[in-house]
């Protein structure tokens, strides 16, 4: 009896603890205010942070709202008082009273302190820019909090653009360079914007900036860089003759002012342009010049140019000269590595050069000479954890032994290659996960910066309106009424801009959720196919998947892409799914001749989740082989219909066939598609319509998805 009572008390205590734990983990919004302890004046622009990651700033009345849970610690920071720490114990209003550390400094002193703080934060952001993107972007956000002028805003956003350029987020770099130029027109920033457009493949926008640029405002070095990047943009458009002409202008300036490093670079780029244009003789002449000039600079620059020329010889099938240059490069690398570290991402690693020497011997069919260099490449790649080169070298040496007729060694090396592929696949999967997590953190901070910019603009507008009100009220009541109307107009315009900004942020968030969802499903397909098929086919499948994934990620930032590009992606995606389920379905993609696919645009990855559902939830459960049809037909001049039809088991029966675990899982892709369509129709006036219905009245009813797309 006593034991029973103790067990009941213990159970009751556990239940109470469980309730307390549940309550403490719930997230809620708490209101608060920050005041001076003695004057009771509210304090504006106080930074409120939570140890869980939320962030807020007090308004002009000293108030704030922030999402917290019981036990969170608020960190209250401001330049005028010592940092305060406050622990959340309930959902009641938080009132924080602070005392200034010292008498209020003069306006001049505050401005000086603010400038010093801003410069330190920008210096810190630049220090971490190439090593820790998250840390750097936090410093930039703090610098924007300290900014007191448009010039400082321009500097902060330029630094943010530099960060995104380094980490190859070119669309975000473009946005921040443009904001920087809105605050202050600086030649350096305009040149960086043109380069960002080029890197993002917005070649026409880049060419427009270069063509309208006043080069008289540039320094000698900037002028050379202007011509160099201008030529690079023409290379992107495959207009090699224009690129050569621009490069030669830059080369003339570099020679006139004896800027030797750029003279070398431009000789090399002219050579590469001639090579791309098919003029091998001219290319060889300029490469000889660039090699000679690079030797006079330093060992590393000379090494880089040897490798560039070696690549040229490889494309020209001049393997003897290529091998000679690469052997020299291997010796030079040993000298350079004694003084500095070379990362695996660099083109001047010994494992890459030994692999390419072995590959050149292989292409010459000199297999005995190829083997030691490939073996050396494998050893070096293994010691440096360079799985890509190790993988390539193992595959190549297996081919060498096969061509020699030594099939036992070829088999051994091929098995090592398969193991290396699995190891590389695991590493890439981890890198994708880490990159996605880091991207989420960066997006959160970027959203914070965007919010700060919007708040700054709104506060500036409000401040200007207040001053105008005071002046106009003094002169006349009618002037006050006019100002009120102007204020209403600006408020309406601001709300409209905020709505658009919120829609854009929502679309970006949904796209960032869709891509990992799609990649996760595709990776499962790749993993399953590798486990059940022969290695060569698996390698081709992995190559197709890599191409598809790159195309999907490139389109992930666009609201709409050309219909033809979407069709190409779908053809590749359906091909990959058909590889896995060849015994389950056949497929056909038909485009009516009257449909002009070049004139229509469609949200990227709009159709893929419906196709995925048709395969995974309809056709996969059929006992007989099914058919998946994608039909694109014209409804009118400005409207087309895209039908996704399967003769699978149908929506009702598919639900009954799902496991309990599958029933708990909601389709993230379809949910995100519905939200995206709703937002896009709100922004673009009902451009897209989607309907889902049963396809036929039989045992396998099938499903028909109809997407209606308008031109404008």
Automatic annotation (TrEMBL):
Keyword annotations for this protein, in alphabetical order, are: Kinase, Membrane, TPR repeat, Transferase, Transmembrane, Transmembrane helix
Q: Which top-rank group of organisms is this from?
A: Bacteria
Start and end of every Signal transduction histidine kinase internal region domain? 507-585
Q: Which Pfam families match?
A: His_kinase, TPR_6, TPR_8
Which terms does the record give in the GO molecular function aspect?
A: kinase activity
Q: Where are the TPR repeats?
A: 154-187, 224-257, 351-384
The protein's matches in InterPro entries, at most eight in alphabetical order, are given as:
Bact_2-comp_sensor_kinase, CarboxyPept-like_regulatory, HATPase_C_sf, Sig_transdc_His_kin_internal, TPR-like_helical_dom_sf, TPR_rpt
The residue ranges crossing the membrane are: 472-492
PANTHER family cross-referenced by the UniProt entry: SENSOR HISTIDINE KINASE YPDA (PTHR34220)
Protein name, as recorded: Histidine kinase
Species of provenance: Winogradskyella immobilis
Q: What is the lineage of its organism?
A: Bacteria, Pseudomonadati, Bacteroidota, Flavobacteriia, Flavobacteriales
């Amino acid at each position: 009896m006593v034991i029973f009572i103790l067990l009941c008390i213990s159970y009751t205590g556990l239940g109470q603890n469980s309730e307390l734990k549940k309550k403490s983990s719930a997230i809620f919004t708490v209101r608060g205010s920050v005041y001076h302890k003695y004057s009771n004046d509210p304090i504006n622009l106080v930074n409120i942070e939570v140890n869980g990651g939320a962030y807020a700033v007090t308004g002009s009345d000293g108030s704030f709202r922030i999402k917290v849970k019981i036990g969170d610690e608020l960190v209250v920071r401001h330049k005028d008082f010592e940092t305060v720490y406050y622990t959340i114990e309930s959902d009641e209003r938080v009132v924080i009273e602070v005392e200034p550390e010292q008498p209020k400094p003069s306006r001049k002193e505050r401005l000086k302190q603010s400038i010093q703080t801003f410069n330190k934060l920008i210096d810190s952001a630049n220090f971490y820019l190439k090593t820790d993107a998250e840390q750097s972007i936090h410093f930039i956000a703090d610098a924007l909090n300290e900014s007191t002028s448009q010039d400082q805003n321009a500097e902060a956003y330029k630094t943010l653009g530099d960060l995104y350029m380094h980490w190859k987020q070119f669309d975000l770099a473009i946005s921040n360079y443009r904001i920087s130029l809105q605050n202050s027109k600086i030649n350096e920033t305009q040149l960086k914007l043109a380069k960002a457009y080029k890197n993002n493949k917005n070649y026409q926008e880049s060419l427009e900036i270069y063509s309208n640029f006043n080069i008289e405002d540039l320094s000698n070095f900037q002028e050379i860089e202007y011509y160099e990047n201008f030529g690079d943009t023409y290379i992107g458009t495959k207009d090699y003759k224009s690129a050569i002409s621009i490069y030669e202008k830059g080369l003339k300036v570099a020679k006139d002012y004896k800027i030797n490093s750029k003279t070398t670079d431009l000789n090399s780029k002219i050579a590469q342009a001639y090579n791309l244009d098919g003029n091998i003789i001219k290319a060889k002449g300029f490469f000889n010049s660039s090699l000679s000039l690079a030797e006079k600079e330093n060992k590393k620059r000379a090494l880089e140019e040897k490798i560039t020329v070696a690549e040229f010889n490889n494309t020209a099938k001049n393997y003897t000269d290529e091998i000679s240059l690469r052997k020299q490069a291997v010796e030079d690398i040993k000298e350079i590595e004694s003084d500095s570290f070379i990362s695996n991402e660099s083109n001047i690693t010994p494992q890459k050069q030994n692999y390419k020497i072995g590959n050149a011997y292989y292409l010459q069919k000199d297999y005995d000479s190829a083997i030691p260099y490939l073996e050396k490449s494998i050893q070096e790649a293994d010691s440096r954890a360079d799985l890509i080169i190790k993988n390539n070298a193992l595959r190549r040496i297996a081919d060498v032994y096969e061509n020699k007729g030594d099939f036992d060694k070829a088999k051994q090396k091929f098995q090592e290659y398969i193991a290396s592929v699995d190891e590389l696949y695991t590493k890439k999967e981890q890198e994708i996960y880490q990159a996605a997590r880091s991207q989420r953190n960066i997006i959160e901070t970027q959203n914070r910066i965007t919010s700060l910019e919007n708040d700054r603009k709104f506060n500036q507008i409000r401040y200007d309106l207040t001053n105008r009100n005071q002046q106009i009220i003094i002169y006349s009541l009618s002037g006050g009424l006019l100002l009120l109307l102007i204020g209403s107009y600006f408020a309406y315009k601001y709300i409209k801009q905020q709505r658009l900004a919120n829609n854009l942020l929502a679309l970006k968030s949904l796209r960032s959720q869709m891509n990992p969802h799609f990649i996760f499903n595709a990776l499962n397909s790749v993993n399953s196919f590798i486990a059940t098929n022969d290695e060569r086919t698996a390698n081709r499948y992995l190559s197709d998947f890599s191409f598809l994934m790159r195309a999907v990620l490139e389109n992930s930032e666009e609201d709409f892409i050309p219909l033809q590009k979407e069709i190409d992606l779908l053809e590749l995606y359906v091909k990959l799914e058909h590889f896995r389920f060849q015994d389950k379905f056949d497929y056909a993609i038909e485009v009516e001749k009257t449909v002009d696919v070049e004139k229509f645009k469609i949200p990227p990855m709009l159709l893929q989740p419906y196709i995925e559902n048709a395969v995974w939830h309809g056709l996969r459960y059929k006992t007989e082989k099914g058919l998946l049809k994608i039909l694109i037909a014209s409804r009118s001049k400005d409207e087309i219909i895209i039908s996704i039809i399967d003769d699978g088991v149908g929506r009702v029966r598919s639900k009954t066939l799902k496991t309990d675990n599958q029933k708990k899982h909601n389709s993230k892709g379809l949910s995100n598609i519905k939200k995206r369509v709703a937002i896009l129709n709100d922004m673009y006036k009902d451009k897209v319509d989607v309907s889902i219905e049963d396809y036929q009245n039989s045992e396998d009813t099938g499903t028909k998805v109809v997407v209606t797309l308008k031109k404008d």
